[in-house]
Every structure is written in C-alpha cells, then in structure tokens.
Amino acid sequence: MKIISKYIVKEHLTPFVISLVVLLFILLANFLLKSIDKFLGKGLDLLLLGEFIFLNLAWIMALAVPMAVLVATLMAFGRLSADNEIIAMRSSGTDFIQLLKPALGFGITITLLMIFFNNWLLPEMNHKARLLSADLSRKRPDLEFDVGYFIDALPNNNILLGGRKNEVFKDIIIFNKTPDAAHRTVTASEGTIETLEDGVLMNLKNGVIHELVGQDEEYRQIYFDTYKVVVPVDNMSLQRRKTSLRGDREMNLGMIQNKIFSFNTKVENVKRRMNNRLNKVTNLHVLDISQQDFMHAELDEYEHSVLDTMKNKLGSVDRFKRKMRNLRRGIRSDFTLIASYTKSISKYRVELHKKFSIPVASLIFILIGAPLGIMARKGGFSVSMAFSLGFFIIYWAFLIAGEEFADRGLLSPALSMWLPNIVLGILGSYLCYRTSQEQQFIHFEILNILKRGEKTHD
Prior knowledge:
six-stranded antiparallel beta sheet, flat
C-alpha cells in the first residue's frame, strides 16, 4: 500500500505544478491588463516592475493553489481510470477510500502550507503591494516634449517647440502662467531640456525675456545669451513611503485578533456611556441595552408615565421633554457608533476565517476531483481545467455572497466563510460514497465523442 500511496501522490505532482503555472500566468496577465495604466509613460525600471509583479503574485497564488489542486486530482485519477489502473488496484483488494487517502495527504500538506502562507507571507506582501501601487499612481511621468504642440504638463507653464535636431530644440517659446506674478514670455532660438529628480531644467540660448511688471503693466525686454529655467515638478522620481497603517487583508492572525478586541472594547465603552445617560436622566435599568427598538419602547413608556404625573407643571414638562429629546439623540448616536464598530468587527472576522477556509478548499476539491476524475476517465488537461473553473466559480460565488451577507449582518462571519466548504464538502462526500460503492451515476460519454472527433480531425 505504501508503494501505491507514493505512486498516487507522484501522479498529482506534475499536473499540479503545470496547472499552477498556467493559472498564475492567466490570472497575472488579467491583473496586469487592468493595471497597465500605472506603468505607461512612468519611466520605471525593470526591477521596479518585477517587484510590483512579485508582490501581487501573493494574492494570485492564494487563489490559484486550490484550483490547481482540483486540476491535479482530476487529471491524476482520470489517467489512472483511463489506463484501468483503478480497476487493477481494486481487484487486488484496495478500495476507493484507500486510494483517496494519499490524495488527501497531499491536500493536507498543501492546506497547511497555504495556511502558513496566508497568515504570514500574504499580509506582508499585500501591504507592500498596496504601498507600491499608491507610490506608482502618484509618480509623475517623464515628460515627452513633442514638436509643434503646446505642452502643458509643467506646472504654471506652457511650452511650444518649433523644431528638433537630436537633443537640441529650436524656436522655443515658454508662456509663464504663475498667478500673482509678472506676465513673462521667454523665447529662445535653441536649447536643451533635461529632467531632474524634482523637476525639469531648460538650458536656453540666444533669446529674449518679455515681461509685463506691476499694476501699470510696464513692459520690458531682457536679452540673454544663455538662460537656465528650472520648473519644480512633484513626484518626478518615485518616492517610496512607509506606514504602519494596514487594511484587513494586510494583517496576520494576531493583528486581526487585536483589532477585534479593540473594537469590542469600544462597543463596551459605548454601552457603559448609554447606561450613564439613562441613569443621569431616568431611573430605568434596561436589561437588553443592545436592542435599539426595545430601548426606545422603554423610554416611551417611561416618558408617558412621568408626564402623567406632571400635567399641571408646564415649565417642568418642557424641561423634562427637552431632557428626553437630548437623551434620545445621544442614544441614537451611540447606537450608530455600535453599528459601525460591529460592522468593522464582522469585516475583520470574515478575513480571519478566510485565512483558513480558502486553504481548506484544497481538501474539499480533492473530495470532488477524485470521483469525478474516475467517472470522466482521461479527459485531458483542457477538460480538467474546465471542470476546475466551473467548481471554482461556484465556490467563489458562494464566498463573495457570504462576505456580502456577513457585511449586512445576515450571516455570521464564520458561517459565511465556511459555507462554500460545507456545501461542496457534502457534495464531494456524496460523490466519494457513490464511487466507493462503484455506482457511476454521472455519465461523460460526451467526452469520448469529443475525443473521437479530435482524432478524426487530425
């Protein structure tokens, strides 16, 4: 049995690596197409581009690995079934559950590695990727100086270039638009333009500076043989920032737990403040302070009972009503704060459970992939990829919907993140049970028709 286990694990390794590389390439290409505007015209070096791609590979890897496990399982068991090796193993006394155990061991190894990856490496790389993306977005591009067009990319300046020979520009005109300053126009017969770390330097030759100065708009001309114009430009070079602020997807398990604890503490502080408000104005002791409707019902009942005893005291009635209005306003504000803190707690709990639920999907996909691979027999890489894509779309749809329900308070964060695994796990367990009983209730003859059609075409 030990030899068979090694053999089955070995059958998973090659398709796993191949499918992982293909999925990483596809997902990365899709991401780069969406982010290409961050690079165009920025003058970035290849090392910086490589760093940007490497950092974003982290979240792509977290998505691609479970899908690659499903492809590998489909292909491994599909090939074993197509070559009748499954039948040979069963005839020697090895049942389906025993054949499944090595695959599950492979899945457990991948799951543990991905839990470690999602908890420690992924948050750090997500954090650095976000900072680098923001830095790239703020960076000003190296300016392109085209001949015959007005160039307005420089702050408070318009430039018109008449011609160009190699690096020397001809017939240069610079219109200065600086507010609250002299109106200045600079002309030069030729010059060169170069970019600095924090701006642009124009070396001009043989020209005239035309100025209108003061309220009387006194006109004057200044002739020059050489003249240097420096125009400051923000973020000409990439400025790398560092910050300790992190989003929920940039935190490890400990950071998320600390964040949840801090928000729970804030909720308790707000509830204590609400109790203090009640004790200050009323003598109520509301047991369920977390229910806003119940709280307002108690206040209404209290207000009516007090007003009944103050019918002939108009001044006291007005003061009492004013106190109650202020109390209600303060309580509404407190409940708004509690709702905001509760939503934040839910968001962080969703991210906490996601660190474990997505890696565990690798095990769930093995439960699905092994029986489907045996039923479909050798469908090939394309068929395995199609099956994987279909199940992963279903899984991801459940995950996104669960996250949305958790944000709205309709589902608990734990259930919302584990529901896809529960649903597909039940389906996979059922498929494994039917396969262990040698009951094939899903037929894939269409795959054989497609394969015969491909051979005929060849």
